[in-house]
Fold these 2 entries.
Entry 1:
Amino acid sequence: MDRAWLHAWEGMIPVHTPKEAAEWELAHASEGAGVQVCVKPEMGEAYCLRSGIVEGGETGVLQGAFQYLASQRLGKPLPQGMQQPCYALRMLNCWDNMDGSIERGYSGPSLWFSEGRVQFVPQRIQWAARLLSSCGVNVVCINNVNVREPAQELIDSMLPDVASLAALFRAYGIRLMLSVDFSHPLRNGLPTADPLDARVQAWWRERARRVYEAIPDLAGFLVKADSEHRPGPFTYGRNHAEGANMLASAIAPFGGVLVWRAFVYNCQQDWRDQKTDRPMAAYQTYMPLDGCFSDNVILQVKHGPFDFQVREPLSPLLLGMQKTHLCLEVQLAQEYTGHQIDLYTMPPMWAEVMEELPQDRLCAVCAVGNLGSGPFLTGHPLAAVNLYAFGRFGWQPHMDVAACIRDWVRLSYALSPEDTETLCGVLLKSRAVYESYTGSLGLCWMVTPGFHYGPSPMGYEYDSWGTYHRADRNAVGIDRTEKGTGYVLQYPAEMQEKYGKKENCPDTLLLFFHRMRYTDRMRDGRTVIQRLYDDHFDGAQQTREMQRVLQAIPFPAAVGQAVNQCMEKQVRNAQEWCDVSNSFFHRLSGIEDEKGRIIYD
Ligand code: GCW
């Protein structure tokens, strides 16, 4: 593997098709010596492995080759029978801007944009494509869903550059997707972008023709409309099915899919308004449209009803919509979950999502990417586990989370079995630790506004984003039951039972669904305030413990140094969260910590 890595940086790997890439991978690894590659086009992405043979479809053979090598390296038997992905679309959404910055990116600048242009080092793209393909990702949307000037040019003057990028990804079985600006026709002199206007429809049809002429296998368009000040059909009094279907029909002749994001809510809410409850917004907007979307439209829904918080219940829209193709959206970029400084391993969270979501409800999965061109490509070197696991998740959503994490550790580092287990243990618990110091009992949005790292308990409280906890001197949390905002009614009956009653509601979501007095007793006998204090102290303590354990792992020097630096920052961050949150609740409630620990007044 090391040799192959070096080769990638020294020069281009001479491959143009997934079959060639599969042969190259096998030929350049001792475990692949003499293995034959046999393409059966009708197998598509699927593959079959036998000793000495990788058989599969045009892209399946490459997936098969990676799996063959991984199995050998891990000392596991080859998987038996035909292997195929659960979801046909396993996408990465990269929020890369044309100036090279990445919205919510914590891994350095963009790999493919800079100075307002498509500019890239081909070897690096090839390396990224190889990495993503080896994880199992098959579509990459290269530009930010917030399409700002000059990103509109990607489907105009910059098409030849996008086509060169697409060719590099294509060799690794990955297709590109592009985020488009719903109001683009206005830029080209049309007086309107109304989806029902014949001129607008004709404009998009012609645009799609030109785009597909340049990139015939483009996966499709991705759209963020009427969300956080982006343009959309609402401007013209049209609904989102009308908007999505118009774009979908323009790309349908070329086999494209139109991915439409369901992240729609009022971001200019008056905090005094207690009737509007932001988590209810997507369901209210889209449920009435169930069954109205064209066949090549996929509605992309974030896993929770808010916005990638450390803890949210499953979005009720994912359970409600029956006649719409759905894509689950998760976020590898650690916007609210530690900026790729704090350790945060995500598969345990996805497993919780899949416990409540039948896997056949979805036709696609998507993750906001955590890739960039800085050292380690994912910021924190250990954040690469999330990218790897996301790829596996798209193939097998009900995977064994601990086994997946262990595979990543073993494929990445040559550690002793004891060190491997120790590292896996830290990775597995990292999400719970982060949650205990930033989001105890389902409280969310106590982050620094805008930046979203570090504590600011009142930061969003009097703002317009619909993200309130309404802590006062007696109580905290929002009543989202039938008697409160009624959000819980968006769930099927059994989940209403689970979340709507305090006695059934999991502790982790208690203050998300219920308003509680600080002195109320929880199931474990502790009061709410004591539990808040305890969680914050425990979180800071466990972070120090993780630091101690990780210091003893013999990582390669550069990795070890980066991990240590991140852990130092995380320890400081966790302590800050602990002190700020505990002081906040202590000052409000006037209630002492039963254990008499230090709380600053
Ligand atoms: O949480 C918000 C982020 C925005 C992002 C938006 C979205 C791309 O803060 O940066 O915009 O979500 O998902 O569209």
Note: The domain at 91-412 is CATH 3.20.20.80 (TIM Barrel).
Entry 2:
Amino acid sequence: MQVIVNKTRLTLIQGEITRQATDAIVNAANSSLMGGGGVDGAIHRAGGPAILEECKKIVARQGRLPTGKAVITTGGELKARHVIHTVGPIWHGGDRGEADLLASAYRESLTLAVTSSLKTISFPSISTGAYGYPVDSAAEVALQTVIKFLEKEVSLQEVVFVLFDNRTCEVYIEELERLLSKSA
Ligand code: ADP
């Protein structure tokens, strides 16, 4: 599914984010930035050791990455020249600021792409794997946050959501259709 939001193409696809050729791909990292399972493991495996080396330097300089923040490294051997690492919230039932933290993870990643003069960026579904965030609520926060950002910021050409499994992809598509019909 593809729509235009202000000046930017917003694309939802099912796929594997490590194969994306956007300027950056976003990693759903953890605060240690030392790699992990899920999409984090896949990105480090596909991108090679250069990514972890840079992550170690960042942690030595500024400590662990707080939830909702983002940093940028090389993409190593990936097609994407950069990886933006962000930390989504762990789901605790919804009353511990999870939605604000998830929105912040998307917003901080987008801001870092813009300040790094990047034009295209791919996101996974942050927090909906090991971190347990319900996919329908996460899709609403993710898409609303990206749309709101693009309504003010015109320098990005494309934002892609690369959804790994069919169900997650369907939920994001339904949610985007719902948000667009609400705003029409
Ligand atoms: P988190 O810890 O933030 O929940 P996970 O990596 O466990 O992160 O899961 C986030 C989402 O990324 C899940 O929907 C998972 O299916 C998906 N995912 C896992 N591997 C990949 C991949 N290679 N490309 C895109 N999405 C992926």
Note: The pocket of adenosine-5'-diphosphate is lined by residues 16-18, 28, 38-40, 42, 88, 124-131, 162, 164-165, 168 (CB under 6 Å).
